Amino acid sequence: MIHLVSVVAFGDALITLSALEALAGSSLAPHRVFGSAVTQEVAKLLRSPPPMQTLLERECALFTVGKNGVRQALADFQNLRAQFSRLTAPGDTLAFEFDKRRARLLVPRGRQVSFPAETGHAYVDRMRWLAGLLDVGPVPWAQASTFSAPAGAPLLVNPCARHPSRFIPPDVLHVLVELAHAAGRPLHLLDPCAAYVDWEMRVDRYLLRPPMEVSNQELRQAGRYIGPDSFMLHLAYYHRIPAFGFFLRGHLPYLPPGTDPELSCMYFDQLGDVSFLREKVQVFLS
Questions:
Q1: What residues have CB less than 8 Å from 142, skipping those under 6 apart?
Q2: For the whole model, what pTM was predicted?
Q3: Which terminus of the chain faces fewer neighbouring Cβ atoms within 10 Å, N or C?
């Protein structure tokens, strides 16, 4: 039996759960999946989430290593490992999934613990790792380049991300509104960070700090999605919604499978070139 303990951020949790969903037909039934509060919340959004058990332990010090220090993080990790080791039987595997950057700080790679592989692409890594744990062949990811959208369906824009450095600048948002209307698509704006309140009267629909369930419903009804590299971009891929993303350099390993970087993404440091921005978004909306 595999005991997977997933202690990750929203985007990573979504990639993991969608990979588990893809593998669930033949391999998940005899295994137990535990999730942090974050993972559990994401699971509720998915069409057919795998059997989950909430991880009642706090989400470890892995997300606050800077404040608590690596020593405390290691102690918390060992406590978490010991707690779940009591649930295992001889021959079981206890697999922990952590944010990769912080997992490197934890180093211990004992016989009973495994971390996601690193092959250069988040989705490929996650699928291979889980398929290896479950001793099945990996399932191919759907290719984003094959997704289509009905004509006239709204363009959903979420300009926010976890860090303000990845927020969409107002001048870029102005271009998106103009191009959406020129393409005959109403623009619906999510504002989970309450940083775009002034745009309420400039878009066709504005949602201030919408609950995740509402954002998920808006996305499922959208024809296309535009936003920074964030949880919502990966949720668009999960729902098979064509998406255009803005990325920091070095973050392309998180592109959804089958996304053409020449057609469906831009780097933040390119946004000053308005002509280039217009050209790429026009092609995406056409």
A1: 237, 240, 257, 258
A2: 0.86
A3: C
